[in-house]
Design brief:
alpha/beta, Rossmann fold, 2 domains, five-stranded parallel β-sheet, four-stranded parallel β-sheet, about 40% helix, about 15% strand
């Protein structure tokens, strides 16, 4: 298959691995990926097993479902309990445990919760069921935000006044900056390809300028990831941290200006709470006042139960790269994809889910 097979050639992979081993030459290095798709790809293809033991890959807060706070989940659950509300959501959100319930449990109890494939599908539901308030749960990084913004623009253009968005969108670079000044060792970042297709490479430059941490924006096939790792190792060996684009077939330095324009029209930057990281300045996106008629948080007042985290769950520490999923006492026993304790086991991009699914090839 074109653009797949070319990036999965075993002989090329062996060449990259050999070169990486020679370049590392016994030096300790720790790289963090901050993209859930990278998390899964690294696990699926056994990348960690191929690398020298001195080179450690850790997973950061790259899963949008995982970093969503329990307060947001509890608000979504509270909305679903209203008889005049239809909640529309992507499938990953259904089983994520809130403080006392989940959307899956509320659906089983009779709540009208519908899994959709796109924001326009949610908007279509609202257009056909005008007697109900349809609330789309806006979870995700810069990759998915343009589609949510487009749905709000379309709702205004079509006067669909019963469509709302509960925005919990987040932007990645501020979280990476917070991690860079923390006490977890990070020698380089494998930056998210999908996010970078929207924002470009410039937002990562402060990480190099302030903290001397190199960044490589990588693709998602095995050879993409191995080449990105090699590029990071070469930066360290040459003491030359910088922002490089390995995923050049998709990512441009300037990103996608049209998508950025749509985001800016509908959303504005705000502080946001991340699971594991706490309140991160200017790391969220809230709906602008000019679109407040479609803001669920403003237009549908509800009482939200007191929020608490599941006892013993280490998702927050996993998202910081402090611990491995296998360090958690719940992992693989009382916490599985079918019956999760925390969100990192639920999402298809979660670190715990990746380790559980591919544990036979992960150290």
């Amino acid at each position: 298959m074109k653009f797949i097979d070319e990036f999965r050639q075993g002989n090329v992979a062996r060449h990259f691995v050999k070169t990486i081993r020679e370049l590392v030459d016994g030096r300790e290095m720790t790289f963090m990926e901050v993209c859930g798709t990278h998390t899964m790809a690294i696990a699926r293809h056994g990348i960690r097993e191929l690398l020298p033991e001195q080179l450690i890959l850790i997973s950061g807060p790259g899963c949008p479902v995982c970093v969503t706070s329990n307060q947001t989940l509890d608000r979504a659950i509270a909305l679903s309990r209203r008889s005049d509300v239809i909640v529309a959501t992507f499938g990953d959100m259904m089983k994520v445990p809130g403080s006392s319930s989940s959307l899956d449990l509320e659906h089983a109890r009779g709540a009208d919760i519908r899994v959709v494939a796109s924001t326009l599908e949610a908007l279509s539901i609202a257009a056909h069921e005008r007697e109900k308030k349809v609330v789309f749960i806006g979870i995700g990084f810069e990759t998915t935000v343009p589609t949510v913004a487009a749905s709000l623009i379309e709702a205004r253009n079509r006067s669909v006044l019963n469509y709302f968005v509960l925005s919990a969108h987040k932007v990645m670079p501020p979280a990476m900056e917070l991690l860079s000044r923390g006490d977890v060792r990070i020698d380089g970042y494998l930056c998210p390809g999908h996010v970078s297709a929207i924002i470009g490479s410039r937002p990562y430059e402060p990480l190099v300028q302030k903290y001397g941490i190199g960044c490589v924006i990588g693709g998602f096939e095995p050879l993409d990831i191995l080449q990105s790792i090699q590029m990071l190792v070469e930066q360290i060996n040459h003491d030359d941290p910088k922002v490089e684009i390995q995923y050049s077939r998709v990512v441009k330095k300037e990103g996608n200006p049209k998508a950025q324009e749509i985001i800016d029209k509908v959303f504005e930057v705000c502080d946001s709470h991340w699971r594991g990281l706490g309140e991160v300045k200017e790391s969220g996106l809230k709906i602008r006042e000019s679109f407040s008629e479609w803001d669920a948080e403003i237009q549908i007042p509800i009482e939200v139960e007191p929020t608490h985290e599941p006892e013993g769950c280490l998702c927050g520490q996993v998202l910081q790269g402090r611990v491995s999923p296998s360090d958690c006492r719940h992992f693989g026993t009382t916490c599985t994809p079918g019956d999760p304790v925390g969100p990192c086991m639920v999402s298809s991009e979660g670190t715990c889910a990746a380790f559980f699914k591919y544990h036979h090839i992960i150290k």
